[in-house]
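Entry 12.
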Amino acid sequence: MIFLGTYKHTLDNKNRLTLPSKFIAKLPENIYLSKGLDGCLEIRTPEEFTKRYEYLNQYSENKRDSRNAARIYFANSHDVEVDKAKRILVPPELITSAGLTKNVVIIGVGNKIEIWDELQYSKFQKQTTPMYEEIVERLDGQHE
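Predicted 3D structure (tokens):
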């Protein structure tokens, strides 16, 4: 399943976030919400979360970076339920971690969904969008 698009939503005063209906249609009732990279949160289906676990688990536990990456990722992950109103409850520590305020942007990133504070996402776009072609060119041929 592939998640696409950009949607603006709001976090309510009880830390609930309504997910876009296009995403809800593809998600099971129970999903995983985690600290992402670059200051966002990420939502993964159980299948994608298992893939992330397998990816992190392939590294040696004898290496400090491997242990730390696993600790940080899994300690900052939660299994959450999508309620009947198509909302998830975002734990306070993840709100703090991502610097979320009331206004958020929810984006589809292929195999996962990211949740960004609206101002942080705007800054990210301003920094990276002008470099899109350069980024794609640098990546060309790296994964063949």
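Annotation: The helical segments are 21-24, 46-57, 64-75, 92-98, 118-128, 132-139. The longest helix spans residues 46-57.
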